[in-house]
Amino acid sequence: MALSQEAKQLLQDISNEYIQYRGPNGTVAYHIQSGKTMPREAFVGFTSKHFGTINMGTEEKEVKVSAGEIWWNFHHDHKREVRDIVMEPTSLPQDLDPNGPEIFNRWYVLKKGMAMPNMNATPANIEIFLNHLMFLSDGDSIVVFYFMNWLAWLYQNPSAKIPVAILFYSKKSRMGKSMLYNILSKVFARELVGTGTGKQLQKNFDDAIEHKRLVIINEMARTEKADSYESFKNTVSEPYVQFEGKHKASKEIKNIAHFIITTNNEDALPLMEGDGRIAVFRCLADRMPNEYYKTLAEWMEGPGASDLAGVLMRWQFPADWDAMAPAPQTEAAIYLQHASRSSLTSLVEDMIESRTQPFDKDCGTVLEVATKLETLYGTIERKINIRTVRVALEEAGARSLGQQGYRKPDGNLTTFKPWAWRDQDKWNDRSGSKIAQECGLPTMKEVE
Fold this sequence. Notes:
Layout (H helix, E strand, L loop, with lengths): L4 H13 E6 L2 E6 L5 E2 L1 H11 L2 E3 L8 E3 H7 L7 E2 L1 E3 L16 E3 L1 H4 L16 H10 L4 H16 L8 E6 L9 H8 L5 E5 H6 L1 H5 L4 E5 L7 H12 L2 E4 L7 E4 L3 E6 L14 E6 L6 H24 L17 H9 L3 H12 L8 E3 H12 L8 H10 L3 E2 L3 E4 L5 E4 L1 E3 L11 H7 L5 H4 L1
Parallel strand pairs: 1-6, 7-8, 9-14, 9-15, 10-11, 11-14
Antiparallel strand pairs: 1-2, 2-3, 4-5, 12-13, 16-20, 17-20, 18-19
Helix pairs in contact: 1-3, 2-3, 6-11, 7-11, 13-15, 14-15
């Protein structure tokens, strides 16, 4: 197929903007910058209008064909054809991308939106930002230093997955928590940083976090379902997650999302005691004067992103920094862990401490506890059932002893799953029969 130089340039221009994606739902043209797709017919019509046509006839008889149709139907050295599209940050250059040429990695396109770092910037250049973090933490230098290490590690190690989310809690609203998006979306690239309210993200969570390195969840209300928080914790910490976007088949993908949560609710997340997946900022102060926020916003719109990027790029980590370590258990973290507990957990804790039945024994089963609580108290805050009681026991510090076996008085072997809520160490060398006796279950020994 002999083409003029002008025609070749048209096809090159199309390849600069599109790739051909042979996906599970058929072949489409994929717009490199926006990530939007078009089927063949729409693409041919669009490119005919925006890129023009190519003469496929002769000098005597011209036959005008859409440049997009020729691009679609034929192979060109500059045309990229792929079988999958991913967004996997990496430090490697594009020609060494481990995904190979048949997989398009959007990282190389989207990272171009990151602010140009000012390599001369020092912590003094971002003092206004550091002071704001100190304000949002009531002067807690431990969590502020952790957050700076957290940001710098993500910046310097694009492929990193830190198993910790950041929670900003303030007693009052309009404290400047949501302003973090203004600067972080510039530092890490707007298209790589997602944002929305807790309610908005709950509706289409997978779609909202797709291809995002940072996700800022504002105005988080209480996570009412314990299993919802368990699912969220997996997204915080697991290296791979099951992704199921709208109109997309479920598949396992590399987990690149990191979360920053802002809230005015102490119980926004049902944090367990010693929860290592959430680093907590807590602000009980009053709102600063309007001029404070105006000055901060002007810095963020001005040199802030470039200066912060430069500081993060040159950040020196302390010798004991471990990106995989649990979040620091600060006073603020412990405070919210206790504040976020359900009334069911508090009830279980009180009953264990006072040795109220069925906690007069040192161990028992979830079914036994749930049955007793349902009889005595009915519905507390959440419906009492096997699942909510299991979560309450775990939050109260009880420990599952795993599946145990013992013989009933009739000689039949049976199994059960006991929990211990006192003297945790003493159960390690107990037999299933001995544990069953202490749980109050009839065993062979009782009738011998």
